[in-house]
Amino acid sequence: MDIVKIKDKTFKISIPEAEILKHVKEIADRINHDMAGKNPLFLAVLNGSFMFAADLMKMITIPCEISFVKLASYQGVISTGSVKEVIGINEDLSGRTIIIIEDIVDTGLTMKRMIESIGTRNPESVHICTLLLKPEKLQEKLDVEYVAMEIPNDFIVGYGLDYDQQGRNLRDIYTVVE
């Protein structure tokens, strides 16, 4: 499927699954090296990061744990600009090495909110791992340590990313065709 239609929009493949998995492996290798001996807690941000988190975790070879948090800032295709925590963090983060797994960092507002929330729980360190980064759209100064791919400010769907909750199940990443 080179072209898909979701609701009122048409999308074409921009990043095939094989290329995504190659970049996920590169990130996993870096994390395995950097975090050796640390037993990090991965916090995957739902819903978008579920595929990335699953593929990443299959390639992590060091002792680690994973949990999930859900933050909301989008309605349809528009960011609301405010982030509300939907499902919180139940683990004790004191003294822990935390790696946030995100599907995409665009404005950085969601990530800033997540880091502020985690920071109140006294972790040893907090690291950001994202599948996709949109550097032109970034509004917050963030140290995004693990970036699988940088992309232009296009509207995308697939591999966990959605358009109004549709298209998350697509294996490849698609870009909207105007």
Description:
This protein is of the alpha/beta class and 178 residues long. Helix content is 22%, strand content 38%. A six-stranded mixed sheet has the order 5-4-3-6-7-8, with helices on both faces. A four-stranded antiparallel sheet has the order 1-2-10-9. Helix 1 (17-34) crosses helix 2 (50-59). It is globular and about 45 Å long.
Spell out the blueprint of helices and strands.
Elements: E1 3-6, E2 9-15, H1 17-34, E3 41-46, H2 50-59, E4 65-75, E5 78-87, E6 97-105, H3 109-119, E7 125-133, E8 146-150, E9 156-157, E10 173-177
Helix pairs in contact: 1-2
Keywords, separated by commas or semicolons:
single chain; 178 residues; alpha/beta; 3 helices
The count of β-strands is 10
Rg for CA atoms? 16 Å
Helical residue percent band: 10-25%
If strands are numbered along the chain, what order do they take across the biggest sheet? 5-4-3-6-7-8
Q: Specify the biggest β-sheet.
A: 6 strands, mixed
Beta-strand percentage range: 35-45%
Order of helices and strands: EEHEHEEEHEEEE
Return residue spans where pLDDT drops below 50 for at least 5 consecutive residues: none
How would the global form be characterised?
globular
Give the termini distance in whole angstroms.
18 Å
- The chain-level structural class is alpha/beta
Number of helices: 3
Mean pLDDT: 92
